[in-house]
Amino acid sequence: xxxxxxxxxxxxxxxxxxxxxxxxxxxxxxxxxxxxxxxxxxxxxxxxxxxxxxxxxxxxxxxxxxxxxxxxxxxxxxxxxxxxxxxxxxxxxxxxxxxxxxxxxxxxxxxxxxxxxxxxxxxxxxxxxxxxxxxxxxxxxxxxxxxxxxxxxxxxxxxxxxxxxxxxxxxxxxxxxxxxxxxxxxxxxxxxxxxxxxxxxxxxxxxxxxxxxxxxxxxxxxxxxxxxxxxxxxxxxxxxxxxxxxxxxxxxxxxxxxxxxxxxxxxxxxxxxxxxxxxxxxxxxxxxxx
Length: 290
Hints:
Layout lengths: L3 E5 L4 E2 L2 E2 L1 H13 L4 E3 L12 H15 L6 E3 L5 H14 L3 E5 L8 H14 L4 E5 L1 H4 L5 H7 L5 E6 L4 H11 L4 E4 L5 H7 L3 E4 L6 H12 L3 H17 L7 H9 L16 H13 L4
Parallel strand pairs: 1-4, 1-10, 5-6, 6-7, 7-8, 8-9
Antiparallel strand pairs: 2-3
């Protein structure tokens, strides 16, 4: 259902508030670059520090600006199942085409708890849903066997697999077959994951290089593996640079250097260190982004 280059778009801030004008401009930058779908309010969108009103407003702005040109997949995950249901319902009412639901963080549920959490959201809100597995942030790993159990639920359509493990992604693909799509959650392994059967990527790097990431996935799915492989290797250094500090600090710093929006982040995230900013600037100059 969702395929190709999908950007996990940043939420630009200005003096502590959501910069609505810049957010609309970033949406246009993505669409003009060939991005296949847009995810507002994901990890890269600093969803954890948006209040409920801001969360809904960011989704609303993206839905309005996209105007049905590409799908909008709203981040609506929470460590409270009731809260996740409420946010997913709000996103549906706002016109989102799908929702991205991170595994509940901090509570450290069992696999059965994870299964029941996702089952409850899916059965309550009739909208296509993407599981989001990122144990490095949440403290819990959604195991392939649990994904397989969830894959039979009709509106659970995909998983963003961000363990960084090709083995785990392969096991999900092996167990689930065509019942659920797998999307890479890490830019640096998008190409090998697609070679295993993934349908694309929910990308951080696409925030600054939408055309390159879209070209990579387009080349792969058109059968031009040589071009896809070259783009994978060509973008590897900049993709790695997006994680020299906690995401989204590097990508927001990069967008600031490009003049696309402020590099402002919300506490407890802090501005990038001077040393790392110098490294990032040097890499961006190599890529002729600045």
